[in-house]
């Protein structure tokens, strides 16, 4: 829920700044890019904090090799994507790549929902995870399409 809140608050705060005259966020796609950047900064950092990292490694489906490396790589990609969202020339590419990354990582959510004892920090309710994922994907699409 904190991630969804970051997206919403970051987006609305940026949009208000745009209404107050900040040209950088003079439209919804630009404001959503700021909200997504905040969200991906949070999730990217989480890939490297000990407790969250352990939990993320635990939900990597067992058929995938080197879960610790996969968690590190996806964390770096999220952080790079967050920066890319804030730089207008790379915004569309960053939003598109993050869209693809979210799709690629979603099987871990499905796996976590089917675990008998998922990590405490990972919600096991697939319906909630899926609904949030739709919001994140829609936000990335809004930035990719609206910023082009």
Automatic annotation (TrEMBL):
Major subcellular site: membrane
Keyword Methyltransferase: no
Keyword Transmembrane attached: yes
Pfam families, alphabetized: DoxX_2
Membrane topology term: Multi-pass membrane protein
Transmembrane segments: 28-48, 68-87, 93-112
Compartments in which it is found: Membrane
UniProt keyword annotations, A-Z: Membrane, Transmembrane, Transmembrane helix
Gene Ontology cellular component terms for the protein in this record: membrane
UniProt protein name: DoxX family protein
Source organism of this protein record: Mycolicibacterium arabiense
